[in-house]
C-alpha cells in the first residue's frame, strides 16, 4: 500500500496515460515475475540468498530455465518488475477518472 501511494504521488507523463502502456506494464510485471520466481526455484533459497556471500556454491553452473536464456535472470526480472510498476500506476489513474466521471453522469 505504501509503495502504491508513493508511486501515485509522483509526477505523471501524459504519454503513458493510455491502455497500451497499462498492458505493457502488466506484461513487464508478468515476465519479470516469471524470471525472478523461476530463478529462485532453480537456485533454491541457499543459492539465491546465501551462495556467493558464504561460499555455498552449486556443484555445477545452473543452465536450466531461465539461466538458459539469460545470464542474470534475477536482475533482469527485478528490473522488469520495477519498470512495470513505474508504468502501471500512471495508467491506473485513467480508469479511476473514467469510473468517477461515469458515476457523476449517472
UniProtKB/TrEMBL annotation:
<keyword id="KW-0489">Methyltransferase</keyword>
<keyword id="KW-0444">Lipid biosynthesis</keyword>
<dbReference type="GO" id="GO:0005789">
    <property type="term" value="C:endoplasmic reticulum membrane"/>
</dbReference>
<dbReference type="InterPro" id="IPR007318">
    <property type="entry name" value="Phopholipid_MeTrfase"/>
</dbReference>
<dbReference type="Pfam" id="PF04191">
    <property type="entry name" value="PEMT"/>
</dbReference>
<keyword id="KW-1133">Transmembrane helix</keyword>
<dbReference type="GO" id="GO:0032259">
    <property type="term" value="P:methylation"/>
</dbReference>
<keyword id="KW-0594">Phospholipid biosynthesis</keyword>
<dbReference type="GO" id="GO:0006656">
    <property type="term" value="P:phosphatidylcholine biosynthetic process"/>
</dbReference>
<keyword id="KW-0256">Endoplasmic reticulum</keyword>
<keyword id="KW-0812">Transmembrane</keyword>
<dbReference type="GO" id="GO:0000773">
    <property type="term" value="F:phosphatidyl-N-methylethanolamine N-methyltransferase activity"/>
</dbReference>
<keyword id="KW-0949">S-adenosyl-L-methionine</keyword>
<keyword id="KW-1208">Phospholipid metabolism</keyword>
<feature type="transmembrane region" description="Helical">
    <location>
        <begin position="21"/>
        <end position="45"/>
    </location>
</feature>
<keyword id="KW-0443">Lipid metabolism</keyword>
<comment type="pathway">
    <text>Lipid metabolism.</text>
</comment>
<comment type="pathway">
    <text>Phospholipid metabolism; phosphatidylcholine biosynthesis.</text>
</comment>
<dbReference type="GO" id="GO:0004608">
    <property type="term" value="F:phosphatidylethanolamine N-methyltransferase activity"/>
</dbReference>
<dbReference type="InterPro" id="IPR024960">
    <property type="entry name" value="PEMT/MFAP"/>
</dbReference>
<feature type="transmembrane region" description="Helical">
    <location>
        <begin position="74"/>
        <end position="95"/>
    </location>
</feature>
<protein>
    <recommendedName>
        <fullName>phosphatidyl-N-methylethanolamine N-methyltransferase</fullName>
        <ecNumber>2.1.1.71</ecNumber>
    </recommendedName>
</protein>
<keyword id="KW-0808">Transferase</keyword>
<keyword id="KW-0472">Membrane</keyword>
Amino acid at each position: 500500500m505504501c509503495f502504491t501511494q508513493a508511486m501515485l504521488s509522483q509526477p505523471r507523463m501524459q504519454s503513458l496515460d493510455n491502455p497500451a502502456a497499462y498492458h505493457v506494464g502488466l506484461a513487464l510485471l508478468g515476465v519479470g515475475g516469471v524470471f525472478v520466481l523461476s530463478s529462485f526455484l532453480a537456485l533454491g533459497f541457499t543459492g539465491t540468498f546465501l551462495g556467493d556471500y558464504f561460499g555455498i556454491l552449486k556443484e555445477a553452473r545452473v543452465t536450466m530455465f531461465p539461466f538458459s536464456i539469460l545470464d542474470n535472470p534475477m536482475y533482469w526480472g527485478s528490473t522488469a518488475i520495477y519498470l512495470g510498476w513505474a508504468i502501471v500506476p500512471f495508467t491506473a489513474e485513467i480508469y479511476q477518472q473514467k469510473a468517477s466521471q461515469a458515476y457523476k453522469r449517472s
